[in-house]
Amino acid sequence: MKLRQLLVSLAAALATAGAAQAATFDGATGAATVTSYSDASNLWFDIDFTSAGAVTLNFTVEAADLTGGLNFNSLVRNLSGLGFDQLVFSLSGATFSAPGTLATDGFQAIASQGWNAQQLWATFSPALTTEFYVGAPLGTGTDWTLSLAGAQVGDTFAITAAVPEPGAVAMLLAGFGVMGAMARRRRNAA
């Protein structure tokens, strides 16, 4: 009888424990609504922007996170009614160790895209008015892999998704143009 009660208690504990989380999600701050679908080794999110801006997803490293990379994907929705020219994901305290896919729902095209260890980005033509997929949130494509190399249990890291204002993108491009002109001028003067 006691063995049966023990087994029932153990089964109940396992049922209520649920799956372990990949890196403890400590919440989001910023200009979007975030829903987490994360599980044992996957950081999966829906991010709904109602205006241009940024949202930061904050995490605490768990022991299980240090044994390998974490898969990351996100479904990003534009609920603003305005087009987004660019989307940038930046990491702090983690790095991208393997690329995944970037895609739209097909109503707009990705004009350019790229990534490095700290960021991934995409620009759109025409401007994005619907959904964007980082990795495989709908089961097609490849998730991005995050590395926590050098991290310890209890450390924190963050993922920031940003949609710059159209004027900010124009100023950024103008700034790159000015820097290029200055470099040419210096090269020609030398």
From TrEMBL:
Residues 162-186 form the Ice-binding protein C-terminal domain. It comes from the Bacteria. Pfam families: PEP-CTERM. InterPro entries: Ice-binding_C. This is Ice-binding protein C-terminal domain-containing protein.
